[in-house]
Design a protein that fits this description.
homotrimer; alpha+beta; Alpha-Beta Plaits; four-stranded antiparallel sheet; 23% helix; binds nickel (II) ion
């Protein structure tokens, strides 16, 4: 039996959780960094049989892979005299860190 | 040496922490999900000798076992013309997920 | 490969994170206890080669060791008739708990 420790960005956490659950994995969601009003990471613990580790890694890769996105800055609040052309900025979002650890015992009470 | 990773409901966390401490276990309390104003889970790490794992599991089972409780809904705030009879609702509370992992080293600084 | 799980006090977390990063370790910062307005612990996961465990432990010891500090209480807000001499109080700050666990796999997505 293995414990998969996955640290994923908050924005990908909901989707990954849904996917893992849909595939019958039992996920324990830990907490997020940052706390009140601040985005951060979600840590998930997944206890799986040895032969299921590959599937979990595949789902993490599909749903949390680090990728580029175009972010268009919102128009400034205060008025400007000229014409404002917002420039889309390329940002990196998502990404996951995964540790797989051998587990002696797994219990639900 | 083993690391017991216990994820318990917030409502059971205080009692379990007291019991583990009373039985001389050194517990490291991680954080809770949900954060501000939201109930969640508390993660505890307990570093123990191999022969103590059973005792820790016993204490978790005693203090955090998933169980049914009757919850009586509070009376409604706004007035009603008829007689209000609150129906107790059966809810599941508590429950714990436990992983036991082999530990190479344990240090306190 | 090893996973170093370090639980350090919030006040030492920033410095340790800087030191570990400076020494090329890849640190995953989990979350803090307490949450909103309450100080607590920061948990760091560091995936390292076996021969690097000693260096990580050394950096944790240097930056997070439990130590005594003199805390001078601030002057009282309301006026007093006599002379106020603040007494410095010795408090224990810092300290870290470290678990080293064997890791099967480590991935970045
Ligand atoms: Ni799917
Ligand atoms: Ni007892
Ligand atoms: Ni240095």
């Amino acid at each position: 039996m293995k414990l998969v420790i996955a640290i994923v960005h908050d924005e990908d956490a909901k989707r990954l959780l849904e996917e893992l659950t849909e595939h019958q994995f039992r996920v324990t969601k830990l907490s997020t960094t940052g706390g009140f009003l601040k985005a951060g990471n979600t840590t998930m613990l997944v206890g799986v049989e040895n032969e299921e580790v590959e599937k979990v890694k595949e789902l993490i890769n599909e749903n949390c892979k680090s990728r580029k996105e175009l972010l268009t800055a919102p128009a400034p609040v205060s008025g400007t005299t000229g014409v404002f052309i917002p420039h889309p900025v390329e940002v990196t979002v998502g990404g996951a860190t995964v540790f797989v650890v051998d587990v002696d015992e797994y219990h639900k009470y």
